[in-house]
Amino acid sequence: MTSTTKIVFSNPRYAVLGFVIFTCMLVGLLIMSEFIFLEPYVVSHLPTGTETAFVLIVIISVFSALVLPMNIFRINILKKSKQKMGGGIFGSIIGAAAGACSCGPIGFAVISTFGSVGATATAFLTNYETPIRMVAIGILIVTYFTTVKSLKMECRINP
Amino acid sequence: MNKKGLLIGIVSIAIIAGIAASISVSDSESVNLDMERTHGTISTAMGSPILGDPSAPVTIVEFGDYQCHQCYNWFHNTKPAIESQYIQTGKANLVFVDMAFLGNDSPRAAQASYCAEDQEMYWEYHGLLYASQESKIDGGWADSERLKAFAFSLGLDMELFESCLDSGKYSKRVQYNTQEAREHGVRGTPGFFIVGPDGQQQLAGAQPFSVFKQILDTMA
Fold first, then answer.
1. Residue in chain A nearest B73 by alpha carbon
2. Are strands A43-44 and A36-37 parallel, antiparallel or unpaired?
3. Which pTM does this prediction carry?
4. Which of A24, A52, B65, B135 sits 20 to 30 Å CA-CA off B32?
5. Distances (CA, A) of B200 to A66, B59, B85, B97, B203
6. Which of B62, B66, B69 to mutate to test the interface with A (most CBs of A within 10 A)?
7. Which domain holds residue B17?
């Protein structure tokens, strides 16, 4: 498991890609969840009672940064199917969507555009923010292990 | 002649009774609004009563929703410091304006706060709503029965409160406030305008106290 991860990330292209995905997801989700503000000053804060949401965002960002480059490696280097890539992208997207709506500008835009349907959708994403993020992490973990297993077989790595 | 006198008497009694009834109704359901009240470019006439000294040099206008989690965070994490350091010291005051958009219970909760204002308990009711907020939007914590239970726990006159809430007396007021928020480009809750003698500054989100302090210190 460690060897396959090392093989992928020993290639600087994939290491940089992983770093970029991690940074973009982390900063993006922290801004959407109001842990970071850009205006009028760049400031970060962790309000009491929001620690779980913060930890889940970090975990989702870490796994997205692991899974997505590994799958791109499979597709580019080994010319394998894009099937497993779907799990990584799906997990990342639902992990990002949960809680991103709520009372912020995204939720406001969705409700203003789609009316009561949008309100129901944003309420669902807000009410079940933690379970949805946990499911997203579950999907990313499963995708990670299946990708590692595939890479082991496809690269014929002996751990 | 007697008939004429009787008729005049009946009409007089009816007029007096009508005037008495109208005075009685307006006492119990009066709307204490200053329609001219503005802060900066924002009409706060339909908003909350002013928290703090009305003549304070700076006004914080908060647009919020009682079901919004970030409003809850701001209420519990940032507002106490603003209240103790700026509002209680007379450096600033605060007006809450509803932007009730998150769920079906949001407008009703906002209306309930004005029904409490009828009995001069607006800020107590406002605080109780944010103290009682639960994690689920439209999960029942702010439905009609719970809103009445909150009023009961504050010792409000329940007959007046229920009549006010059930009649939708303040539905237009809440709609007006929400429209005011949209017209001022508020795109989420909580949203703030800090209005000082030399202008106003918009702030989006449940920003920490340090940000408010920086702005308030430059304006006060």
1. A47
2. antiparallel
3. 0.83
4. B65
5. 45, 9, 20, 16, 10
6. B69
7. 1-30
Q: Based on the domain organization, do B101 and B22 belong to the same domain? A: no
Closest Cβ opposite residue A103 in set B70, B77, B208: B70
Query: Does B117 share its domain with B185?
Result: yes
**Do B107 and B199 reside in the same domain of the chain?**
yes
Considering the domain architecture, whether residues B112 and B202 belong to the same structural domain is answered as: yes
In this structure, what token pair is assigned to residue B64? 């919020």
Q: What is the mean pLDDT of chain A?
A: 85
The backbone torsions φ and ψ at residue B185, rounded to the nearest 5 degrees and listed phi first, read 75, 25
Residue with tokens 């940000």: B211
CA distance A29 to chain B (A): 14
Q: What is the pLDDT along chain B (220 residues), one digit of tens a residue?
A: 466 666 666 666 666 655 444 444 433 344 556 778 888 899 999 999 999 999 999 999 999 999 999 999 999 999 999 999 999 999 999 999 999 999 899 999 999 999 999 999 999 999 999 999 998 999 999 999 999 999 999 999 999 999 999 999 999 999 999 999 999 999 999 999 999 998 999 999 999 999 999 999 998 7
Q: Which of A47, A102, A104 sits opposite B77 (nearest CB)?
A: A47
Q: What's the total number of domains in chain B?
A: 2
B73 is written with which tokens?
A: 């965070």
Q: If you compute the radius of gyration of chain A from its CA atoms, what whole number of angstroms results?
A: 18
- Looking at the DSSP bridge assignments, the partners of residue B108 are none
The two tokens of residue A51 are: 């620690």
* In the block, residue with structure tokens 């809440």: B174
How many whole angstroms separate alpha carbon A89 and alpha carbon A73?
A: 14
